[in-house]
């Protein structure tokens, strides 16, 4: 039996009007408290939804609204979108927005510069895994900008050796398989005030 059910059970059993009134006042208090709690919780969810939707809207704008005609609600949408197929133009949009060179971009994608050049000149759709990688890199870079409050500060942090990453620079770690999740975890710790 929940606390509210216990109070209602007791308030209906008694015949004393004073005791019954006290129980009813308590019921009203509990109902009000639960309502306020639900409203507060809903406000938190709506704020998180707003921040998330704003983040993903910006991601779509960066990669190009022409190439990205889907609504993204979570990173799991990256898989569905990449499976449908995305044009290689998103790679160029990515490096242009973040001011990266083709060399830096090819290292992040673990491909050669000539391959990157061929992909961006073709009208073909990207292979699923590379499309997901571009989505995740864009997502990470946006998150880094949010955490460090500017692209400049985030990019400086990417170049600094970090003990939490074994002394490697975050940018170096991004270039290895599984490195993106390690850098994202580290950004999450920084965002939550954990010394990293």
TrEMBL record:
Record domain Antitoxin Xre-like helix-turn-helix: where: 78-126
Pfam families (alphabetical): Xre-like-HTH (PF20432), Xre_MbcA_ParS_C (PF09722)
UniProt xrefs under InterPro entries: Xre-like_HTH, Xre/MbcA/ParS-like_toxin-bd
Protein name: DUF2384 domain-containing protein
UniProt superkingdom: Bacteria
Domain annotation Antitoxin Xre/MbcA/ParS-like toxin-binding: ranges: 145-193
